[in-house]
Amino acid sequence: MPSPRVTVVLPAKDAAPFLDTTLTTLARQFDDLRDVKLVAIDDGSRDGTGEAMRRHAAHLPHAEVIVNPQPVGLASARNQGLARVDTDLYCFLDGDDWMAPLRLQTLADAMEHLGCDFVRTDHITVTETRRQLVRAPYPWRNIACPPRDGILPSTEVTMVDYPYAWAGMMHRRLIDDGVAEFPEGLFTAEDRPWIWNLHLSTSSFAVVDAPALLYRRGVSTSLTQVHDRRQLDFVPAFAQALEIVTADRDADRFLPKLVTTILAVSAHHLNRSMSMPWDVRRDLRRGVRDLLRPVPRATLELCLDGTSQRRRRLLAPYVRRAA
User: Fold this and answer.
1) Which CATH fold topology does 6-222 show?
2) What is the average per-residue pLDDT within 215-238?
3) Which long-range contacts (CB under 8 A, 24 or more apart) does 273-281 make?
4) pLDDT tens, residue by residue, 285-302
């Protein structure tokens, strides 16, 4: 039997209502089903997620299902899948999303033609019946570029603000070089240090046009919709991103960009903190202060001055305490 071209890593928890759509579209990604390998991870689900994975895997020439008795989180589940990648190319897919036909074949062809370490694509958000195109924030299309060119300027949305692991495809040399994994144990924001590592540690990338990936928004089980302690994972996630950037040869250039992002994300969580339990709200405030503490005072103040007046009022006390 011919070897597959692409491994698809699909972790999911309690995604049974959506998996039939997700996995049906996976079977339409190549002219030859033997070109795709599925590694599905049932991350401690309490519904029919595992059954749906096994049912669809039975119809694929290359597929395996991993079952975690207890949830380990999206980051660790993705790493479980990475350990089973034995193809030159791989990608990620979430259990509540789906793909237009031949998306993965198009991406695999682009990877092989351009010789990139990774490619990125636009995506479509789906909120009930409304769909909206979200473009990858990079002006050049279908040409290989240095990944560092996708980081700046600090004042604009750039490729490091587009961290979605499922919005592209990667070459397995990222695994071999030790830049593919996610921070273990994180349930949210795991893709923030991951995307910075990708752009600082690889040689080439491209934003390419491809059939759409459709990303569901507003799903009640999504961690973006909850207000519990798992939301605080952005603190250790960005702490790791800070370590990555400050150790880089271009730290002086890129640190203001990362700090600007940290301030924006911190403000977002602080704005919604009144919906959190009091102890989570307390730990959020401590976490923001501790996250900002290692940042040089001049950089913090420069980035704070560049934010909106409302955000400055909200964040100024944390900047002062961190300093």
Assistant:
1) Spore Coat Polysaccharide Biosynthesis Protein SpsA; Chain A (3.90.550)
2) 78
3) 275/227, 276/227, 276/228, 276/231, 277/227, 277/228, 280/227, 280/228, 280/229, 280/231, 280/232
4) 999 999 999 999 999 999
